[in-house]
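Hey,

Quick one before I head out. I ran the complex with fe (ii) ion overnight. Inputs first:
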Amino acid sequence: MTQTAVYTEQQFIADLREVFATHRDSVQQAHNIAKLMRRAFDNGWPENSEKFGDGNGTYEIYRDAEYGHPGPGFVVLAYRQGPQELKRPAPHDHGVCWVAYGVKSGGNTQTRYAYRHDSADAEMPAFEVVEVMEQGAGDVHYILPGEIHSVQGSPSDETIYCRITSMDLDKVQRHRYDVESGRSAIFSSAMTPDP
Ligand SMILES: [Fe+2]
């Protein structure tokens, strides 16, 4: 009897490592890793992971010692969260790192921001929303080094989502942005602002 091919977590992680081993460019890395996350979702991940749980929380699935961008240490995290209060947006970047965000079930709203420079060079740049993406089941997007976004969890549904960060963001200096003024401040955290 032939066995059905299953894309295991072990193979998924081996493929993630292979992407870093093959590509030095952050866009190629993030794009290919987003594809692999969609494939893992199609094969029952992360619910089938031994590292994933039934309670709400953040589950660290994998941490690499060798590969990452720009330095070693990419991290695979999976989240289970209940309906979320609608919050004030908390725009942030990921410093020199990129992040792939994928929704397995439920939904997240991703908002991208950018500075827009007026032709009058004496003016401060405006801080604007450039894209709002409703992420539903199976949707994976990535935020590149320097790009700015905020995440709002579904106010009505339980959401299972995953995040692959190209390094451990606890060790990376990055910025949070005030949505009204566009002013930024430096911080280093994997979890705040959310996330
Ligand atoms: Fe983020």
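The domain at 9-182 is CATH 2.60.120.10 (Jelly Rolls).

Talk tomorrow,
K.
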